[in-house]
Design a protein that fits this description.
CATH class of one domain: Mainly Alpha
Radius of gyration: 22 Å
Strand order of the largest sheet: 1-5
Number of helices: 20
Shape: globular
Number of strands: 8
Order of helices and strands: HHHEHHHEHEHHHEHEHHEEEHHHHHHH
CATH topology of one domain: Serine Threonine Protein Phosphatase 5, Tetratricopeptide repeat
Strand content: 5-15%
Largest sheet: 2 strands, antiparallel
Helix content: 40-55%
Oligomer: single chain
Structural class: mainly alpha
Amino acid sequence: MRKNILSIALLGSFLFGCEDFLQEDLQGNYSNATFYQTEDHAELALTGIYNAVSFSDVRNHLWVFGDVASDDAVKGGQSGDQNDIQFIDDFTYQPSNAYLNNIWKHYYEGITRANYLLASLPDIDMDAERKGEIQGEALFLRSYFYFHLVNIFGEVPLKLLPPLTSNQIHVPLSSVETIYAQIDEDLETAASILPVSASGRVTSGAAWGLLAKCRLFQGNYQGSLDAITELESAGSYALTSLYTDNFTLGNQDNSETVFAIRHLTGMSPKLGSYLNQYFAPQPENGYFFNSPTQDFVDEFEETGEAVVDPRLDYSVGREGTKWLNGEDFVPTWSPTGFISKKHLQPLAEVPKGTKGDGGLNYVYMRYAEVLLMKAEALNELGRGSEALAPLNAVRQRARESYLHDEDLTGFGALPAGLLPAVTTTDTNQLREAIRHERRVELGLEFHRYYDLMRYGKTAAEAALSATTDFSYEANRYFLLPLAETDINQAIN
């Protein structure tokens, strides 16, 4: 995606207050009356939207709702630190929970910035082609925010205009179906005007990929396949030879990246990823949140000779293995004994003193996920024999790590019996195989909780109710933040 250059905290501020507040002049270099006038203004406003998706701001707690709420991770960290995460982990939270409020406010801030730009863009005199691309990028990013909000909270206010009047501020809840319909419409428009290739920016492939995912989540399997066909027709995407190339500095923006959120170290204002500190081990000045569970570790396949799926040690730090800096990993301070690795960098890249300024991209969608979505859609349409090819392509790449990673014991030869090709075409058995593959392939990338919820009551409660207070009827969606229900007069 586009490089973040400047944070625009004043643009499109999310307004909660009364009419007196709305009449106050904005403080800063620009007001709405003087901004959105030139091409430079449009680019600057777009950068502000991109900033809202990054993890340079600690209010972006997507990992709490994607991983910690699931069976893949627990809060981690010191006992008593950030208890509001623990309440979400246990499903004992209250509507006043700070993490509910933070992600709501942060993502609606992004939506508001997008709405200001989309409303103003038609009147800006600028290159027509670039204007269309900016429109597509803003529509995509607004859709990205709404996709997360609708999966976390269910019914939410659908805001499509800048908050300039009371009716545009106090917006009632829209149904999940209505939210998805708007996302579908916006992503189709975005895909039609975005370029196939754009260095550091949202592309048409990203729009098709997110559209495929939204349709899959709604059970529109043919529609999902149609979007995947459009994505693949560009010929731009392929699995990398080595799984870890998606999570190491210097290998980013590769052929597998469909949509990634960029971070830059050493910038002012700060544009690096705080995840590098929040998930890191305590000896590295880290907080070791989002600690993987034993249940997640046990999900990875192992041969009779105890050769484990290499994706496990690419994803998780565990006893008996080497850590990122080359030392033995001995997590005596970790509540589970494990650490999430995918969002971390070695000290040679980010030292202890600047640990929260990581440079790794957050890769939201990889081509591996597209292949697994394709396999799922085909299987649900009764085309199991066709679903095997994309599913097994993902397993083959993982298996063939032994042909590409010199650090693996036994490098140069494929271990016998490791990750064999799936052959069943029974719909139920293949469904479980695909769900298993999503969990291990995409683990700790903030997707698991959404998957459990869309799988339904049986799968969700089997995964969560044994160790938490989770009930599908009560906890399918998180409660709306108290700060919003107190102020938004349309949902009281």
